[in-house]
Amino acid sequence: MTETGGPSGPEGTETPGKPAQPQAGEPAQPQADLPTPPRGEVPPSPAPEQQWQSPSGATPPPLPSYQAPQQQQQYPNWKVGLGRPGVIPLRPLNLTDILDGAVTTMRRYWRMVFGAAAVTAVLTAAIDLIGYFLVDTTEDLERLRDLGPAATDQELLNQTLDMLGGSLAASFVSLIATMIGTTLLTGFLTVLMGKAALGKPIVFKEAVKEAAGRLLPLLGLTVLYTLAIMVAAIFCFVPAIIPFTFWALASPALLLERGTVREAFRRSAKLVSGMFWRIFGILLLAAVISAFLAMIITMPFSFGAFMTLFTDPEQVYIPSTGDLILQSVGTVIAQTIVGPFSALVTVILYIDQRMRREGMDIELARAAGIATPPPPQAW
């Protein structure tokens, strides 16, 4: 037994507190002469190792911490579209987006929109008023009124046919004026909407110059489109909605794609196919809204004709020159306010169909300077 209480080892083994003796054949290793601590005391801890220093004595600079590279471009989320650089979001549009885009364009560019609408409305009303004076139906109305209750059925029929012929001639002049005004307004608003969708600045002279180069083809397209609807309406109402809907997008296609009239009709039919009833419903809703607002605006200017409803129903209303001028003023105001709405809805529908079918939203985003997501990589 040793003093520490452990068993004593065999002879030749090392004992605690004494350095080990080298065996025969082994080189002697230098050992530090460490004193054995007294019983019950803990030996002192060794001195800590010194920190490395450069030969010059300067402390080395700390290592740079790793930082993740910052994202250069933030791509928009596909669920919310590619952003809204202009008046419409760059994604497939719903009904609210289409109507809001038309109203937003009218509010944001109100000077150019209402200015162009006022010019075309005045031109249309002037041609319409001149045609009414050239094809005067006042005498026919007076003869019909003078016939009285003693007139025979044949006299009433002959006078009605005469009055109907004059009314058709006046309506033909009014139709020509309407087509000219519609062509001018549609051409200008289509160019304006193409730039407004990108949020780019619009110069009135540049928009007029760009639209002026396509006015003749656009006028021919408008004439063909109107005749197709009229011919279809003569036979039946249901076939009339077919050319009305399938060729509704031909005007924007002609102006924005710079093709021929035939190509514009084909492009419109291709874009509408598969979504006929959706486009027809939106166009019909826009027409109903426009007609309702126009009726409210023009009603105070047609006071003379309105009052005949409360007088003798057999009394024939014959408008005076003052009544005609007052009605023309009301028509100009109504067309200035309401006319751009339907045209803008048609252009937005064209852009929406191309975004749905051809990915035009990506092209518009690139043109507007918006970063688009990279195409998916193949495995």
Residues in helices, as a percent range: 55-70%
Count helical runs. Answer: 13
Nearest-integer average pLDDT: 77
**Runs with pLDDT <50, length 5+?**
1-19, 71-79
Q: Mind telling me the C-alpha Rg?
A: 45 Å
Strand composition percent: under 5%
Order of helices and strands: HHHHHHHHHHHHH
Shape: elongated
Give the tally of β-strands. Answer: 0
Distance between the termini: 78 Å
> Biggest β-sheet: count, sense, barrel?
none
The chain-level structural class is: mainly alpha
Description:
The protein is mostly helical. It has 13 helices and no strands. It has helices at residues 95-108, 110-134, 138-147, 153-196, 204-212, 215-235, 237-246, 250-257, 261-272, 276-298, 303-307, 321-358, 360-367. α1 crosses α12. The longest helix has 44 residues, at 153-196. It is elongated and about 85 Å long. Residues 1-19 and 71-79 have low confidence and may be disordered.
Structure summary:
This protein is mostly helical and 379 residues long.
Which descriptors would you attach to this protein?
379 residues; single chain; mainly alpha
Task: Give the secondary structure arrangement, pairings included.
Elements: H1 95-108, H2 110-134, H3 138-147, H4 153-196, H5 204-212, H6 215-235, H7 237-246, H8 250-257, H9 261-272, H10 276-298, H11 303-307, H12 321-358, H13 360-367
Helix pairs in contact: 1-12, 2-4, 2-12, 3-4, 4-5, 4-6, 4-8, 4-12, 6-7, 6-8, 7-10, 8-9, 10-12
